[in-house]
């Protein structure tokens, strides 16, 4: 059932015709902003860069977190609260595609995690959106209270947040700043150019839905005030239209009239110069002509009894009265001439009431009201005219001077018929209302024998030719297509226009757009995430035959991006064809006849289930935060062999994406380690993964280290006890599929295509005569050549334990 009604918005506009003194108001759903920013982000070449590298020391500990190879995802708006006093919003950014090592400056490598789109590292911060005459954008550098979640408490998240802020501060503007709304395309028109804007967040009191609202002041218009929690400002995204509304544009009636008429006025006069008069809010109230002339072309005219002709002449602004002016106070009746059109060509008469008379400021003065424009021109003109009665053959010719007092009204309405629309949303009317006093009065040049009737006819002709010249001058630039110009000039994120599918004209204009209403059809599927080899059929609304479906690789794609057929069915590539990287592609549906297109996006991950960390070392009764992400359904967490001595236990979150693991207590056996395996299952996807936790019962006595590199990636390991190399120590690989190790301590890593991310090697030295057991461990990130520098540099003196300086290339 609808909850945010269109009728509420329209009623508010009628009650507040000034729109709280904002000529342009734009509202957008945060979900739409996120979708557009996401699409723009993944279209950038920089989106493929895995350049987030560095170390984060945890305050008050010897632990250092090492991040390598991470790339930054799009900054997304979080849940919004109503904020009328400031433009602050919550923002989240996913870091994925990299590897996270936890290092101890004594114990070495403690943990390995690899994050992808299903389970990224999350950055959260508060950000004040920046609004100006150019638009609204989010500058990541301006974030505050930045937290990067590495699995620890608030001090650790804030310390990691400082690391991320330092990284962002070093980015160029193209990577750091994300446009949300852009007004720069309006800058070429002084009557549509935005002079300042502000952004606030608004939440529906009915259902809690949120909107980002941009309030913009336009040149020659006011800067208004903001809504408050107490007033009745409407939620601008209604639910009860034929299509879902993702953005709304409100234009004040004052802006529509000012922009339409002022542009035409500038071209009406040759050499025209106007002096603007602004009120205290810098709103254009009046324009007075200071120079210029109106060119009147040779004209013909017929009344019911007379035919008229005249030569071309000009009417200068500020023409003075002739010295021998006749009395011009007589009252003469004259019919009104009207124009109704989108392009302002004559169409119909109007019986509109005469507007209030403004104080006369200059020979030609134009006043801008909120729902109409009034022009008053009081001056003199001299012309040569010819006329005759229709039943006579002889023409009379006179060169005469006339005084005129012409009042013009311009206003905009909604077209009533398809013929009136002519592709426009509004219909413009240029009117000369009925007046009590004569519009044109002869001053001199007419002979004394001219009858009163002839004078009335002559005056009507002169009024006609001046009005016709005014109309022709205005029509060079006068247009009712102001909402179309604004819509075309408002860009959402990069390269997306506001294209309305519905509009209303209660008092001012309300235009409503769907996210994909730029096309006559739209791909209805949001960005899709798939596992290798899976299929998804994309659809459009309304249904359309003959569309051409295609794929475009987004930056960073290395392998096969999949296939899409003529029906819009996409098939993801198999995992072995993806080049070890996720696939990102743009899905395009194109109408071959019109060239119109709509798009979505598809991402193919290497697996349907991700868990982290892959391995972690801790002490008894420690607590760890574990995470997971899936393409399927609910996640089930369990500890394998839960009844064995020393096992820990898990407490999953309600959504199953996080889990608190608590390590078990001391065991009776004389051993250093308990290896826990936590299983994460997604029954719907048919996937399961293991997290390994090495629980230390006591501090290890043996130190494993790399003695030297061998051909084909093999490593010679050695073991130290109290600083001395000890031969004959038993070395084992407790996790299957992580390589091989022989009695001499040579470790051979698994096939690189197997995707094994680490190897855990345990060392054990037993001295039965003294009932002593010494143990130790080493975690190797695989392939070591890829991560050697990152782990080696992280935490001196331990780092990645290497006996002598080694070089691991390739």
Topology:
Blueprint lengths: L5 H10 L8 E5 L1 H13 L9 E6 L5 E10 L3 E2 L10 E9 L2 E6 L3 E7 L6 E8 L1 E3 L2 E5 L4 E5 L5 H16 L3 H4 E6 L11 E10 L6 E9 L28 E5 L1 H16 L1 E9 L5 E13 L2 E4 L3 E5 L2 E4 L21 E4 L22 E5 L4 E17 L6 E18 L4 H4 L5 E5 L8 E5 L7 H23 L7 H8 L1 E2 L3 E2 L2 E5 L4 E5 L8 E2 L4 E3 L4 E3 L2 E2 L6 E6 L9 E2 L4 E3 L11 E8 L6 E8 L4 E4 L2 E5 L3 E8 L5 E4 L9 E4 L5 E5 L10 E10 L4 E10 L5 E8 L5 E7 L2 E2 L4 E3 L7 E2 L4 E3 L9 E10 L4 E10 L2 H9 L18
Parallel strand pairs: 32-39, 41-47
Antiparallel strand pairs: 1-14, 1-15, 2-3, 3-5, 3-6, 4-5, 5-8, 6-7, 7-41, 8-11, 9-10, 10-12, 12-27, 13-14, 15-30, 16-17, 17-20, 17-22, 18-19, 19-23, 21-25, 22-23, 23-24, 24-25, 24-26, 27-28, 29-30, 31-34, 33-37, 35-38, 36-37, 38-39, 40-42, 42-45, 43-46, 44-45, 46-47, 48-49, 49-50, 49-53, ...
Helix pairs in contact: 5-7
Overall 3D geometry?
Answer: elongated
Separation, N- and C-terminal Cα atoms: 61 Å
Helix content: 10-25%
Number of separate helices: 9
Features:
single chain; 9 helices; 810 residues; eleven-stranded antiparallel sheet; twelve-stranded mixed sheet; 55 strands
């Amino acid at each position: 059932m609808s909850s945010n009604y269109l009728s509420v918005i329209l009623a508010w506009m009628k009650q507040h015709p000034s729109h709280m003194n904002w000529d342009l108001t734009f509202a957008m759903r945060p979900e739409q902003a996120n979708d557009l920013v996401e699409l723009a982000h993944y279209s950038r070449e920089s989106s493929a860069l895995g350049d987030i590298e560095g170390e984060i020391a945890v305050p008050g500990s010897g632990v250092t977190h090492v991040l390598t190879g991470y790339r930054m995802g799009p900054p997304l708006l979080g849940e919004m609260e109503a904020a009328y006093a400031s433009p602050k919003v919550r923002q989240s950014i996913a870091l994925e595609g990299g590897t996270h090592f936890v290092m101890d400056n004594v114990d070495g490598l403690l943990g390995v995690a690899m994050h992808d789109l299903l389970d990224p590292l999350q950055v959260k911060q508060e950000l004040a959106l920046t609004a100006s005459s150019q638009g609204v954008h989010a500058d990541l550098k301006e974030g505050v209270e930045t937290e990067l979640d590495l699995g620890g408490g608030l001090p650790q998240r804030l310390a990691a947040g400082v690391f991320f802020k330092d990284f962002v501060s070093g980015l160029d503007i193209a990577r750091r700043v994300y446009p949300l709304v852009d007004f720069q395309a309006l800058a070429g028109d002084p009557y549509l150019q935005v002079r300042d804007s502000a952004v606030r967040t608004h939440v529906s009191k009915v259902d809690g839905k949120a909107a980002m609202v941009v309030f913009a002041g336009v040149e020659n218009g006011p800067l208004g005030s903001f809504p408050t929690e107490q007033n009745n400002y409407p939620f601008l995204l209604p639910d009860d239209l034929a299509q879902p509304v993702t953005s709304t544009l409100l234009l004040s009636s004052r802006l529509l009239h000012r922009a339409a008429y002022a542009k035409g006025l500038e071209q009406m006069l040759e050499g025209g110069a106007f002096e603007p008069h602004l009120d205290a809010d810098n709103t254009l109230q009046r324009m007075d002509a200071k120079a210029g002339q109106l060119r009147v072309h040779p004209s013909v005219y017929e009344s019911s009894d007379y035919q008229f002709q005249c030569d071309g002449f000009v009417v200068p602004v500020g023409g003075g009265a002739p010295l021998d002016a006749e009395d011009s106070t007589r009252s003469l009746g004259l019919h009104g001439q009207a124009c109704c059109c989108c392009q302002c060509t004559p169409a119909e008469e109007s019986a509109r009431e005469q507007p209030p008379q403004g104080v006369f400021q200059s020979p030609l003065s134009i006043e801008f009201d909120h729902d109409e424009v009034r022009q008053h021109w009081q001056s003199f003109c001299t012309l040569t005219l010819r006329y005759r009665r229709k039943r006579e053959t002889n023409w009379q010719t006179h060169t005469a001077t006339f005084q005129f007092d012409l009042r013009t009204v311009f206003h905009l309405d909604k077209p009533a018929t398809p013929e009136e629309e002519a592709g426009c949303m509004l219909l413009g009317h240029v009117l000369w209302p009925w007046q009590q006093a004569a519009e044109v009065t002869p001053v001199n040049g007419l002979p004394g024998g001219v009858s009163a009737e002839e004078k009335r006819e002559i005056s009507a002709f002169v009024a006609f030719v001046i009005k016709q010249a005014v109309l022709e001058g205005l029509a060079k630039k006068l247009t009712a297509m102001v909402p179309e110009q604004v819509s075309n000039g408002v860009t959402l994120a990069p390269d997306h226009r506001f294209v309305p599918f519905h509009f209303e004209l209660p008092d001012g204009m309300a235009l409503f757009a769907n996210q994909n209403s730029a096309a006559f059809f739209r791909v209805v599927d949001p960005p899709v995430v798939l596992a290798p080899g899976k299929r998804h059929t994309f659809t459009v609304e309304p249904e359309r035959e003959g569309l051409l479906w295609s794929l475009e690789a987004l930056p960073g794609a290395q392998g096969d991006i999949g296939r899409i057929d003529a029906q819009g069915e996409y098939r993801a590539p198999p995992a072995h064809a993806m080049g070890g990287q996720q696939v990102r592609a743009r899905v395009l549906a194109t109408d071959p006849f019109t060239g119109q297109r709509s798009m979505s996006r598809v991402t193919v991950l290497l697996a349907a289930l991700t868990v982290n960390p892959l391995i972690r070392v801790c002490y008894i009764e420690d607590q760890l935060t574990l995470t997971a992400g899936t393409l399927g359904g609910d996640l089930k967490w369990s500890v394998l062999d839960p009844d064995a001595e020393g096992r820990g236990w898990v407490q999953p979150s309600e959504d199953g994406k996080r889990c608190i693991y608590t390590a078990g207590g001391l065991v009776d056996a004389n051993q250093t380690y308990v290896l826990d395996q936590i299983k994460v299952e997604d029954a719907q996807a048919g996937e399961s993964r293991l997290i390994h936790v090495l629980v230390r019962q006591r501090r290890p006595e043996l130190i494993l280290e790399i003695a030297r590199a061998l051909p084909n990636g093999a490593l010679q390991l050695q073991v130290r006890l109290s600083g001395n190399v000890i031969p004959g120590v038993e070395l084992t690989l407790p996790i299957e599929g992580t390589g091989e190790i022989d009695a001499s301590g040579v470790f051979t890593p698994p096939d690189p295509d197997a995707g094994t991310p680490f190897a855990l090697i345990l060392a054990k030295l037993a001295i039965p005569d003294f009932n002593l057991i010494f143990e130790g461990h080493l975690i190797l990130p695989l392939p070591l050549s890829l991560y050697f520098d990152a782990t080696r540099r992280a935490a001196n003196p331990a780092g990645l334990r290497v006996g002598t300086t080694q070089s691991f290339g390739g």
